[in-house]
Amino acid sequence: MERLKFIGVFSLALVLFTGCADDQPSFNSNNKGIVFVEGKSYRVPLEANYSTQPFKSSNDKGVLKGRQAGLDCRKGDISWISSDMQMAAQEAAAKGDINLASSIIMAAPRKGQIGCAHPLSKKEYEYYREKQTNK
Length: 135
Known about the structure:
Layout (H helix, E strand, L loop, with lengths): L1 H22 L8 E6 L2 E6 L2 E3 L10 H8 L9 E5 H12 L3 H10 L6 E4 L4 H12 L2
């Protein structure tokens, strides 16, 4: 009887947690907003953290690492990472698990959780600004 109660409680908890997980909004890298970095405009995902300095050269460490991960990074771009992915990697690093932190970051490009944003042209900026204000 005790075992049956345990299975029942466990099953109920599993159903509740599964339902909660499905209702949570997930990161969408296509849901973007305009940000300004060093006087230039960029479009980055809304729920992402982004760098505050553009890459200075094609040989910038960030550009090279981005390219190795399969990202289209180049001089003048800024990098971004989803807040959740960054938090998970930071928590793993804070616990001393550098391998886990590294594997989280390495998996981020495949999951669309990290990327590079190119500066917008004046025409692109006007288009996205107009689109944003007319929502």
